[in-house]
Amino acid sequence: MSVFRIVASRPIRKITAAAAVLFFLLLALIPGTLRAQIDSREGIILVVASYNPDTRRMSGFISDFEQAIVQKKVPYEIVVEDMGCKGLSEAPQWQERMRDILDRYRKNKQLKAVVLLGQEAWASFLAQGDFPDDIPFFGCYASVNGIALSSLNVPQRDWSYSVDMAALADSIGTAGGCLNRYDVDKNVDLIRSLYPDVRNIAFVSDNTYGGVSLQALMRREMLRYDDLRLIQIDSREGSDSVVSRITRLPQHSALLIGTWRVGDDGQYLMYSAMNDLIAENPTVPVFTLSGAGLESVAIGGYNPKYKSGAGEIAGQIAGYYHGKPGAVHFELSDGEYRFNANKLKEFDIAEYKLPAGSVVVDNTEAQLQGYFDPALSEEVLLDEITHEESRYFFILVDGERAGFLKTNVGSAQTEQHLDNAFE
Question: Fewer Cβ neighbours under 10 Å: the N or C end of the chain?
Answer without folding.
Answer: N
